[in-house]
Amino acid sequence: MEVIDERDFSALEIPEDDIPVRAVHYVEVGEMTPAQIAILMKQLNESFKSAKGGTHYVVPIRNGKIGSDIVFENEWLEVVRNTCEIVDNQILLKNNIQEVKILRQRV
Question: How confident is the model at residue 71, as a pLDDT?
Fold first, then answer.
């Protein structure tokens, strides 16, 4: 197995306090059957159940792509509904989150 890590830690400051983290994980399922994908998603969701900071979202992708457009739209809308809220006609991250960092890792 080869791990390709695209993260740049050079400018990353790690705070001393524990900061809650919520994440969206895109998981490659390749040629798995729907039953295999269901089992994998169940196990991954279970592993994140006790994660600090709230829910972690797991979205299956096949051969680098997120399903059909309709499936993608529904998955993305669900993530947005769970992570964002509208305040004074502006879309904001829930729980007054002020900062987002995007880390990419491909295994």
Answer: 61
